[in-house]
Amino acid sequence: PVYDIGHCWYPIPDPPTNVSASDDENGQITITWDFGSGVDHYNVYLYDPVMMDWVRLASPSSGANGYVLSAATGMITCDGSVYEFCVTAANDSGESAFTSTDTGQCN
């Protein structure tokens, strides 16, 4: 879809591509993706199996192509648990569909 924002037409961006979550032994998981065009920011989501829903973790700027999630945030524990992530791209017209997911393990 395309929307009129202040007399300019902005399409909702396509989802980022090549989303990857690392398996890390340093108390963190790194989520990366390839840049898209027409993006103001990205949204990084973590699947919460208790809530059975996606929780937005962060909204990095359009210049970012990664996000580091540390156990210090309290969102993950580094006990061998596996976490599922996805990313969207967004601008003033809206948010893209979710990317395919990837999993990362924190040890």
What does this structure look like?
- The chain has strands at 2-5, 8-11, 17-21, 28-34, 41-48, 53-58, 66-70, 82-91, 94-95, 102-105.
- The strands form three sheets. Strands 5, 6, 8, 9 and 10 form a five-stranded antiparallel beta sheet that branches. It has a three-stranded antiparallel beta sheet with strand order 3-4-7, with no helix packed on it.
- Strand 3 (17-21) and strand 4 (28-34) form a beta hairpin.
- It is mainly β.
- The chain is 0% helix and 51% strand.
- The chain contains no helices and ten strands.
Task: Sum this structure up briefly.
This protein is mainly β. 0% of the residues lie in helices and 51% in strands. The strands form three sheets. Strands 5, 6, 8, 9 and 10 form a five-stranded antiparallel sheet that branches. It has a three-stranded antiparallel sheet with strand order 3-4-7, with no helix packed on it.
How many helices in DSSP terms?
Answer: 0
Major β-sheet annotation:
5 strands, antiparallel
- Distance from N terminus to C terminus (CA atoms, Å) equals 42 Å
Low-confidence stretches: none
